[in-house]
Amino acid sequence: MKILVVEDNPDLATNIVTYLKEEGNVCEWVPTYREAIDKIVSFGYEMLILDIMLPDGSGLNVIKELKTQNSDASILIISAKNSLDDKIYGLNLGADDYLTKPFHLSELHARIKAIYRRKNMNGKQEIKFNELTIQVENHALMVHDKPVDLTQKEFDLLLFFLTNKNRVITKQSIAEHLWGDYVDAYDSFDFVYQHIKNLRKKILNAGGLDYIRTVYGLGYKFLVPYT
Amino acid sequence: MKLLLRTSIYYIIITFIVFTLGSTILYNIFLNEIKTETDLYLIERFHTVISTLDTVNQPESISNYKLEIDTLSNVPEKLGRESFVFSDTMVMHQYLRRMENNRKMTGVIKVNESYLKLTLFDVIVESDDIMDGVFNALWRLFLFLGIVMVISSFLISRTIFKPFNQTLQKIKNFNIKELQPIKFKKSHTHEFNQLNQFIEQMTEKVNADYRNLKEFSENASHEMQTPLAIAKGKLELMLQSNDLDEKNMSMIESAYISIDHISKLGSSLTLLTRIENMEFSDRVDCVFSDLLQKSLDDFDELYQMKEIAVEKAIEKNVVIQNDPDLLKILVNNLLNNALRHNNQGGSVKINLDRNNFSISNTGEDLQFSPDELFERFKKDKQSSTSLGLGLAIVKKICDISGYTIKYSYEKGRHQITIKF
Lengths: 227, 420
Prior knowledge:
By secondary structure, chain A is α/β, with parallel strands linked by helices.
C-alpha cells in the first residue's frame, strides 16, 4: 500500500513509517500542511495518515483538498486532541477513522488494514493464511475448510494477530483493541490470556497449527512458520 | 441572629441599666426639690406666725396641729435664722387619722422678752409616691423607646444595609468556574466600599489563578501525549528486534507499562477538565435503561471471567436528559469499579428505576474513610495499577448534572446510589 504520513513530529513519524515499512508498505512522510498539499496534488496515495494540528494549518483542510480532487485515498486521522467534535467533524469531511494519541502501532496498523479491507474488497473479504480462512464479513473462521465457532472477541483477536503477523503485540494493545478505553488494561490482562488460550485451543482442536507464542510476560506473537 | 437585632438588644439592655440608675437619681432630685420647696414654705409660715404673734397676747392660743408654740424657760444659744432646724417626722393626720410623712421646722424667737420655740409641720409627698411616679413615667418611656428603636432599626437596616446585602448576594452567586469577576455599585458607606473593593480584587485574583491553573493542567496533559506516543512507539519497535533476551524484554515491559499509565492518567485528567468545562453539553433525552443494558453486555464477558454473578432489576424506558457520552462514561466507570474491586466469584447488583440508579458489589473493606472515596487519586494499596480517577469522574459528572451520589457499606457490600 502507498501511504503518506502527515505528522509534524519527526520522532512519531519515524515510528509510524518504520512500522508500516516493515509491514511491506511504501511510506512517505511530510511534516507540514503545505508539503502535504504538494504531495497529494502530485502523487496518488491509497492511504493518508493525518495529524490534525500541523504547524502551518489544520489537517482537516487536507481532507477538504483531497475531496476537491476526487481522490479515493483513505484517510486516518491521528490527533492528540481527544475531542469528540473534531472526531465527528473529521469523519463528516470524509475521513475513514480517527485514532487518539498515544496509540499502539499495532492498533494503527490494524485500523489501516480494516479501512483497506472495507474499501477495496467491498465486504466480500476473505483472508487466507495457510489452513486458516477468515471471512471478515460473517465473522467466521474455517480451518481446513471446516467452520470453527468463535466468539466475537476471539474473532477480533485472530484478525488483530493476522494483521500484525510476526510481531510482538503487547497485552495492553490487545486489551485496548478488544475492549477500548473503558476497561483498565491492567485488569483485562487475565482476560486477554483466557481469550488467547481459548482461541489457540479452538484452532488446535480443528486441526490447525499453534501459531500464537507468548513473549515472556510482555505479550504475544503470531508466528509464521518457515515453510 | 441578625446584626441589627443583636445591636438593638444590647442597646435595650444598656438603656435598661441607664434607666434604672437614672430612676434613683431622678428620685433623689425630686425628693430634694420637694424638701427645699417645703422648707421655704415653712420659713414663710414662720414669718407669718411671727407677725401674727405681735397682735396676740397669748402665744399658745394660736397654736394648732400644724404649729406648736413653747415658751422656753432659759436663754437659748441660738436665735432667729440661726436656730432653724429642719427634719423629717411622722405626724398624725387630722382627717386621715393616720401617720403621715411631715417636714418639721423648729425655730426660736424672742417676743416681749420671752423666748418662744416654734415648731411647724407640713405634709410632704411620701417617698414611695415619688418612687411610684418615677417608675411609672420611666417604664412607659422605656417601652416607647424600645419599640421606636426596634422599628427604626429595621427601617434603617433596609436602606443602610442594602449595599451590604447586595454584596453578600453577589458573593453567594460567585462561581469560580464562570471566570466572571464580581463588580459592585458604589455605595454611600465607606466601609462597604472598602469591603467591595477588596472582594473585587480578590475575585479577580482568584479567577486569574484559576484560569492559569486550568490552562496549565489542560496543556500539560495534552502536550504529554505526543512525547508519550513517541516513547511508546519506540519501545514497540524495539520489541520487534529478535536479539532481545528476557531481561531486556522485562525492562521494556515495565517502561511500557509506566508510559501507558502516564498517558491514561493524562487523558483521564483531561476528561475531568473537559467535564468541568461543560464540554459535554449535548443534553438530549437518553434511554438510560438501554444505555445501561448495552454497557452491561460489553462487561458481561469480563464479569463472567471473574465469575461474578450479576443481578439486575432495570426498569424499562427510563429516560434521562443528559449528554449521552457523559452517561456512558458514568455507567462504564461504575461497572468497571464494581468489577475491579470485586472478589473472584463475587456478585454485583444493579437497580434502576425512574429516580435512582444503584450498583453494589462484594469486596474488601475500604482502607480509607468513605468520605474520601470520590476524591482524586484515592485508591486501595492493592490496586496500585489503578489510576484512582474513575470515581472522581463519576462524582464530577453527578455534580454538573445535579445528581446526588451516595456511598454505603453494609454486610460486605459496597453500594453506590445515584439520585437523578
